Amino acid sequence: MALHTGLFGVPELSSPEGFQEAQEKALQETEQLVQKACTTPPGPQIVMIFDQLSDALCRVADLADFVKIAHPDFAFREAAEETCRNIGTMVEKLNTNIELCQSLKQLLADKEVMDSLDPETRQVAELFMFDFEISGIHLDEEKRKRAVDLNVKILDLCNQFLIGAHLPNKIDKQILPEHIRYNFAVEGNYIQITGLHADCSDDLVREAAYKIFLYPNAEQLRCLEELLTSRNHLAQLVGYNTFAHRALQGTMARTPEKVMQFLETLSDRLFQRTLKDFEMMEGMKMKLNPQNSKLMPWDHPYYSGVLRAERYNIEPSLYCPFFSLGACMEGLNFLFNQLLGISLYAEQTEKGELWCEDVRKLAVVHENEGLLGYIYCDFYQRADKPHQDCHFTIRGGRLRKDGEYQLPVVVLMLSLPHSTKNSPTLLTPGMMENLFHEMGHAMHSMLGRTRYQHVTGTRCPTDFAEVPSILMEYFASDYRVVNQFARHFQTGQSLPKSMVSRLCESKKICAAADMQLQVFYAVLDQLYHGEHPLKRSTTEILKETQEKFYGLPYVPKTAWQLRFSHLVGYGAKYYSYLMSRAIASMVWKQCFVQNPFDRAMGERYRREMLAHGGGKEPMLMVQGMLQKSPSVEDFVDALVSDLDQDFETFFMDSE
User: Fold this and answer.
1) Is the pLDDT of residue 655 over 60?
2) Which of these, 210, 342, 480, 510, could form a disulfide with 336 (CB 3.0-4.6 Å)?
3) Mean of the per-residue pLDDT values for the chain?
4) Which phi and psi angles does 186 have, rounded to 5°?
5) What span, in angstroms and rounded, lies between the C-alpha atoms of 380 and 620?
6) If we measure between CA atoms, which residue out of 325, 324, 282 comes closest to residue 300?
7) Rounded CA separation 475/185 (Å)
8) Whole-number CA gyration radius for the chain
9) Three-state SS for 546?
10) Are 46 and 108 in contact (CB under 8 A)?
């Protein structure tokens, strides 16, 4: 009889009630560790205890964070949600525990002891102190209470804003012309608009969706204003000028001034290219809709797609047969083997370990170092599963007291189609690229083998976290890499080189305008989290920023910012994706473009960039890899040169 276990092999989690038990255990362990921390003299031991504290809570909270959105069973989701709330409250309490903070303060104040610590331990001690400070520990009783209340309020506003950002807008169906009504969901006398319909070929449908979906909702507007004001209050209460100053502590960019310099420089360099892109789109609109050819914000995604498809025949169905899931996984295995000496093996699972029977468990094994950790692949579509592709840390790696290494465990979540009786799971080129991207995060988790779980793997600054994943996209678009695995699932034929070239060339069509749009979003995010009170309403700021940093006209009576859900998770850090892409681009061009399978470069990449997790300053990691410290101009050059990169030079005739 097979033994039963619980989710991820945690025995308690064989039922939803087990969350209560796991949480009790974590809270008991926490109390003992707090006692211990408060009675231990200054030394590296303190940092170890803090990390054990963090580990005890994260082991439960991280797992619950995943289960609450991904488990098919409502009872499990609900129990996990409750656990997240309770542990969140506990973390807030610890972050305002004066006695606990005092023991860390004594360590940080003891210059002799601090100088004797290794850089990673010092960094981790400072990071823990930073968590205390942003909770207002250094304030008097009354202000500290205000900080705690603000944190709670902000959490509520964030959840409220996220819900509002996805709510449909209703309109009386008589208002819409009859011939386009069938595109939308009808409920009685109303039509529900649930999104922008950006890919619809009818200009009128896109226009209607844009104007109705983005029509301002007073409740949501109040929620956003209150969120921005509360974030600003909290930041100022704990000693920062603005929320952006607080959010950028410890990042690669460091200050809002640096972020704006990066975004403005990039925008200036993109400007002419973006205009050319808009002209091309407008020409296409003129051809297809001569009565009404002015280019509007609802046209950009659609016409750039039309241009791509017309100029390069990149119909996904031509590519899918070459990208079976099995072939793609083989490709990743080959790449990791060549670059890092790592292989992926399918693992048997126990009964109760998985939340859905189609999840696969992979063991990540190094040729000399052995088992590095586990990746659970939750790859297939199912009802109720969130659509975004993402990477979750379930358990962070760390060096345990007994000298054993606690192995990292992660989940990769995608939404791939199931196999059919006639064909395996086939990926579009976009899905294949996403698989590589998410695997980049997973490898960072496996190889960021830090002593402390607080900085393990992807627990690093936001503007560095996307570098390993975006770098994988460069591998995924290189013919030498793709040629290793892309085989037709029926005939075994290789994917022709010309098809890979067409795909890569097609990505450059309107790429400047696409990047310009990202710059606009990033600037908007900086302004909203900058000086308060804001000089104008959020909508007026949107209008101004859109005209200056995007170029397509603002549409009256719309408020796109109310749908900008990234303001919650990436407040003041939306620029991160662009900055990470710039670094990934530099690393690719300098280290891998000559030979994407170069083992010496792979090892250097592991040693300089992946191995430290968040235990080393990100700029120092970049310096170690590129052997220079890049300037804002270097970042911008890297992004802009990608727009022009001539394809053939990419492979220096690798035939």
Assistant:
1) no
2) 342
3) 94
4) -100, 135
5) 38
6) 282
7) 41
8) 26
9) helix
10) no
Q: Give the distance from CA 393 to its chain's centroid.
A: 12
> Which of these ranges, 396-400, 544-548, 634-638, 649-653, has the smallest mean pLDDT?
649-653
Answer yes or no: are the C-beta atoms of 285 and 293 closer than 8 Å.
Answer: yes
Is pLDDT of 650 > 60?
no
* CB contact set of 322 (below 8 Å; sequence gap of 6+): 486, 487, 488, 489, 493, 494, 495
Which amino acid belongs to residue 98? I
Alpha-carbon distance of 77 to 404, in angstroms, equals 32
pLDDT digits (tens, 9 = 90+) for 85-142: 899 889 988 988 999 999 999 999 999 999 999 999 999 999 999 989 888 888 998 9
Pick the closest to residue 341 from 363, 361, 362, 369 (CA basis). 369
Taking every pair of Cα atoms in the chain, the longest distance, rounded to a whole number of angstroms, is 78
For the record, the structure tokens of 648 come out as 């053939």
* Other Cβ atoms closer than 10 A to 1: 4
User: What phi and psi, each to the nearest 5 degrees, are found at residue 615?
Assistant: -85, 5
Q: Which two tokens stand for residue 66?
A: 């995943």
- Over residues 6-57, the pLDDT tens digits come to 999 999 999 999 999 999 999 999 999 999 999 999 999 999 999 999 999 9
Residue 127's nearest CA partner among 612, 627, 637 is 612
Tokens of 76: 């499990």
- Would you please indicate which residues are annotated as catalytic (active-site) residues? 438
User: By the 8 A CB rule, do 639 and 515 touch?
Assistant: yes
Which has the higher per-residue pLDDT, 110 or 148?
110
Q: Report in angstroms the alpha-carbon separations of 180 from 173, 206, 445.
A: 10, 10, 48
> How buried is residue 383: exposed, middle or buried, by Cβ count under 10 Å (0-12/13-18/19+)?
exposed
Q: Angle of helix 576-587 relative to helix 511-528, nearest 10 degrees?
A: 130
Q: What ranges in 168-255 are assigned the alpha helix state H?
A: 178-181, 203-213, 218-237, 243-247
Tokens representing residue 155 in the block:
């959490």
For residue 533, is the peptide bond before it cis, meaning its omega torsion is within 30 degrees of 0?
yes
With vertex at residue 532, the alpha carbon angle to CA 553 and CA 166, rounded to the nearest 5 degrees, is 55
